[in-house]
Amino acid sequence: MKILQILHRPPWNIGGIERFVSEISLRLKEYFDVEVFCTDVRPTKVDMYGIPVKAFKAFDKSYCFSLDLYKAVKEAECDVIHVHNVGSFAPLTALAARSRPIYVLNPHFHIRSSKLIFKVGRALYNRLVGSLIFKRAHIVVCGSYREKRSIISLFTIPSGKVKVVPGGIDIPAIKAAKPYNISENIILYVGRLEKYKNVDLVIKAMKVLPPDYRFYVVGRGSNELVLRRMIEHMKLDDRVKLLGHLSTNEVYRLMKTAVALVNPSDVESRSLTCIEALAAGTPVVANNDGCGLEETADRFKHYTVLIPFKRMSSKMIAQAIICASNINVDVDLSEFDWSRVCQRYMKIYLDGVALSG
Fold first, then answer.
1. What's the CA gap between 167 and 142, in Å, rounded?
2. Residue 337, strand partner residues
3. Using alpha carbons only, how large is the chain's radius of gyration in Å?
4. Contact, 25 vs 51, CB < 8 A?
5. For 226-244, b where at least 16 C-beta lie within 10 A, e where not — what string?
6. I want to staple 316 with a disulfide (CB 3.0 to 4.6 A). Which of 15, 146, 312, 357 is the partner?
7. Distances in Å between the alpha carbon of 296 and those of 188, 248, 280?
8. How far is Cα 310 from Cα 264, in angstroms, rounded to an integer?
9. What are the pLDDT digits (tens) for 317-343?
């Protein structure tokens, strides 16, 4: 059986969707013939650990529209097309496939948009393109029940067509990671540095937190320079560290070291980073202001502190972090292991092909 994965950007890029496609493809190739199509600033062909990846030139970086990708999908021979990210034009290309494969769609859907221009574009896109994509998909797979409820309500599709499969984490690698020998209390953030991620609110709270607390920030983004200036202006250079991109193992080691992981983001469908932190035995402080983290936090409420970051003072945020740092985490997360997640997708593929035959 041949599986064609389609996404908006190369799977080696930094991002949740890109990592999802990379991780699941690496495991699926042990059982199926897997190929990946995507878009990039320039066309390229890469062998990614035995998986052929073809990147086609896109006209823009936001919605990743590519005529070359459309033409390639049209000619592709495969049994299953698994498309990702309804916020781009990638799912639309699957409609061109002449081989009429099973169409599996992972929306990775955010009910909110981070910027006004995206809100306007999303509304128009949902009306003109989104409805068609969801209608044509044979199977829609959401990462959470909140995401499932949102798309059923917005696109009026049958609930029986939508399945829920969580994203995966590498539990063996997390368990094997060794913590760093650091005496201070480390607060950790892992993710993009964009304005809507609200990392600045945690930086401000550092002024209130006891002097033995440190804030380590992993990731890059368009708001990085603003954050660096804020750190310098607040004279927090010795307590707040912007670490840029780190290897996966380095991130896991920091998760093992930290007393708490924070996720103050306004826009999130779910956060596998929070699940990874819990797997590392680290409690989580997450935003509950309608951003999509509530479902994860509610499932693991004994190990998570939920707060509306933007509506709280720096002192209240600091108190929440201190509260979380005193929580002992001991939770079974085996359902999130990549091997389990991959098995569930294999069943979806096989059941879909069997029903179509």
1. 9
2. 169
3. 21
4. yes
5. ebeebbeeeebeebbebbe
6. 312
7. 18, 22, 16
8. 9
9. 999 999 999 999 999 999 999 999 999
Q: Can you name the residues that pair with 39 across neighbouring β-strands?
A: 56
Query: For residue 132, how many other CB atoms are within 10 A of its CB?
Result: 14
The pTM (predicted TM-score) of the whole model is: 0.86
The reported pLDDT for the residue numbered 116 is 42
Contact 168, 16 (CB under 8 A): no
186: Cβ contacts below 8 Å, ≥ 6 apart: 213, 214, 215, 216, 254, 257, 258, 259
Residue 138 has pLDDT above 50, yes or no: yes
Q: Is 225 exposed, middle or buried (0-12, 13-18, 19+ CB in 10 A)?
A: exposed
- In whole angstroms, what is the distance from residue 148 CA to residue 143 CA? 8
CA distance 84 to 105: 6
What residue ranges define each of the domains in the chain, with the CATH number in brackets?
2-168+337-356 (3.40.50.2000), 171-335 (3.40.50.2000)
Q: Give the torsion through C-alpha atoms of 251, 252, 254, 260, to 10 deg.
A: 110
Of the two residues 202 and 354, the one the predictor is more confident about is 202
268-298 b/e (C-beta count within 10 Å ≥ 16 → b): bbbbbbbbbbbbbbbbbbbbbbebbbbebbe
pLDDT at 253: 98
Given strand 162-164, what is the order of strands in its sheet? 44-48, 51-57, 33-40, 2-6, 80-84, 102-106, 139-142, 162-164
